[in-house]
Design goal:
- The radius of gyration is 26 Å and the shape is rod-shaped.
- The protein is mainly α.
- The chain contains two helices and no strands.
Length: 65
């Protein structure tokens, strides 16, 4: 014999599962602490400065037509 399913409860359970899945994705995307964000930004700016420091003078192709 088949199991009786309350469609209202099944629909609400599915909505809860979808909401939890979205919340988990948001925790991954936005759940970083301020210290982690500032560390990442500092590492990125250091890498950009190092790259600019290795640039040869007068080697800009865009400024010399």
């Amino acid at each position: 014999m088949a199991e009786i399913v309350n469609l209202r409860r099944a629909r609400k359970q599915r909505v809860r599962q979808d909401a939890e899945k979205q919340a988990q994705q948001n925790r991954i995307a936005f759940g970083r602490t301020k210290a982690e964000r500032s560390l990442t930004q500092a590492e990125q700016s250091k890498a950009e400065r190092a790259l600019e420091g290795h640039r040869l003078p007068g080697a800009d192709d865009e400024s010399n037509p």
